[in-house]
Write a structure and sequence with these properties.
Largest sheet: 3 strands, antiparallel
Number of strands: 3
Order of helices and strands: HHHEHEHEHHH
Oligomer: single chain
Strand content: 5-15%
Radius of gyration: 16 Å
Length: 152
């Protein structure tokens, strides 16, 4: 972790080495599955996750007070597309979900969650990502695992 862990400690930020924490993890510690791993192992109950390529145009603090977050305990950005074509309709059926065309896709690169309020969905996301080699063949990466888990 090195130098930037030292710099972060000056800001009271704790840097965690995912490979050290995740030695017993079934979730891949690289790529998209690393997101859920990092959120689950975060010491924070409320997590504002922003991918490195996310650039907020407004102060994201506002999200903590948004009606959607207050009601549901989670807020996701929508992705550019609004077509669930990545997920085959039979996967929706297998999970007991109704396939609906033109439903906005989740953007899993920026979200706000309260882990205590959405813990069950977080467990499902973890399970989907632990089995990413099977699930990612039927969807577009982790973003669809979040979307399906929160729909259950």
């Amino acid at each position: 972790i090195g130098e930037w862990a030292i710099a972060a400690s000056e800001l009271d930020v704790v840097v965690i080495d995912a490979t050290a924490v995740g030695k017993d993890s079934r979730t891949a510690l690289r790529g998209w599955p690393l997101k859920i791993h990092s959120v689950m192992h975060s010491s924070f109950q409320e997590v504002l996750f922003l991918d490195v390529d996310s650039v907020p145009l407004h102060n994201p603090d506002q999200l903590f007070f948004s009606p959607a977050y207050q009601e549901h305990g989670a807020v996701f950005s929508v992705d550019f597309t609004s077509d669930p074509h990545w997920i085959p309709p039979d996967l929706f059926a297998l999970l007991g979900l109704e396939w609906k065309p033109f439903v906005s896709e989740f953007e899993s690169g920026q979200f706000l969650i309260d882990k205590s309020r959405v813990w069950k969905a977080m467990q499902v996301v973890t399970e989907f990502n632990a089995r990413y080699t099977s699930f990612f063949m039927n969807m577009y990466g982790d973003k669809d695992t979040w979307r399906l888990a929160f729909a259950l």
